[in-house]
Write a structure and sequence with these properties.
Layout: H1 2-6, H2 9-25, E1 30-35, E2 41-46, H3 52-72, H4 83-104, H5 110-133, H6 136-141, H7 144-166, H8 180-202, H9 205-209
Length: 210
């Protein structure tokens, strides 16, 4: 209980309402009274788990309780979405399925309306959790499209900086390319120097001394 108190009010509200909703779902959400004639009267009813909407609502509620229990136990759940985002999605879906079930069912009982109220409280608690995490901006940051849009400029930045790194530094002189005539003259001078060096190597040492 101390760990639950340490969490936000939104999480506390979701947890309590979810547990109560699971308990309430096993009671009669639909009930019909009928007359048996001289033998008296009777009634028959079904729980919230009698059709598809009720089953999905119950399973989502169990998942939400397990998610909150994992947080209470400090267990890291390997999913890409944050606790606030998953709680918000589950809370909204639970409320939607509870309302749809109540609207489509016949002979709804008082306990079915209690269940719808608890489901709405779960959604309110989930919204409070989102507000504590940063509000709508937090939900937007969890969307894949937002992550992709944010990474595109970052990837384009190094590509834009690459040509600038190759450009020469400002203020430094840039050597002009030599003309064909200058290149030919340089080649001839190199050949003459090489020939002179070879001739010096062939001349005997005595001749060089005289």
């Amino acid at each position: 209980m101390e760990r639950l108190k340490a969490l936000g009010r939104g999480t506390q509200l979701m947890f309590i309402a979810s547990v109560l909703l699971i308990i309430d779902s096993f009671f009669h959400w639909q009930e019909v009274d009928f007359d048996l004639g001289p033998s008296g009267s009777g009634s028959a009813g079904v729980s919230a788990w009698d059709n598809f909407l009720g089953i999905v609502m119950g399973l989502l509620t169990i998942v939400l309780i397990a998610r909150i229990a994992a947080r209470l136990a400090a267990v890291d759940v390997p999913i890409p979405l944050s606790f606030a985002t998953t709680s918000f999605v589950l809370g909204v879906l639970i409320a939607v399925f509870a309302v749809l079930k109540n609207l489509t069912d016949d002979y709804s009982t008082f306990l079915s309306y209690v269940g719808v109220g608890l489901a709405i409280i779960i959604a309110v608690g989930a919204w409070m959790e989102v507000q504590e995490a940063g509000g709508v901006e937090h939900l937007k940051s969890q969307m894949p499209s937002s992550a992709g849009a944010g990474s595109a400029p970052a990837a384009a930045a190094p590509a834009a900086e690459a040509p600038a790194a190759e450009a020469p530094a400002a203020g430094l002189p840039v050597a002009a390319p030599e003309s064909p005539a200058e290149m030919t003259e340089s080649a001839e001078t190199a050949v003459e120097d090489a020939a002179a060096g070879a001739a010096d190597m062939d001349t005997p040492s005595t001749e060089r001394e005289t």
